[in-house]
Task: structure prediction
Amino acid sequence: MFRKIGFWLIWIAFSTYAFVFAPPDSPETLTLITNLSTGKIAEINPLIVALFNIMGVWPIIYSCVLFADGRGQKIPAWLFAILSFGVGAFALLPYLALRQPNSEFMGNKNTFLKVLDSRFTGIILTLGAAALVAFGLTTGDWSDFISQWQTSRFIHVMSLDFCMLSLLFPALLGDDMARRGMHNSTVFWAVTLVPLFGPLVYLCTRQSLPENTVQTVTN
Result:
């Protein structure tokens, strides 16, 4: 109960800050989002380009644990996963507040779950994220980014959303490890304490979900 209340309080506080106390909207925000979405990035700070695209990687990372977790929930995990592509932690926090602990995977994996469960998916995500981080860090303008963080609600909230997604991943990690028979506190804390790449390396190295195959015996 306290865990659920905690997630609701975080969601309320985060939403209130984002829409009330964060810097005001910039008139250029819609144009910026449109250009980022369509690849017109020539005049955009590479740090912002990298962050925007990494915010597209995070929902896939969460989907790799969310859809398996959803097998044992009364609420549709897919709905929150889809919404997270647009609003990030604002969609995932309600799921974390509504879900029940779920340390078992029931049934068999369909094709979609097999893709999300594959280490190859984790490797592709890791390579993509590493390329984005390298691009942003080596060619980005930090002074411009800090200035935009202080004056643009979009940049400000997107940065905080990145931090929030990093902090929330352990809320699903423990049950995902348990479903796979992985009971190692060192692994849990290593994944928890390394933002972005901790979860990515976990997806690359975790054990596969066990399937419950029902065999019919014919007399």
Q: What stands out?
A: The chain has twelve helices and no strands. The two ends are 49 Å apart (CA to CA).
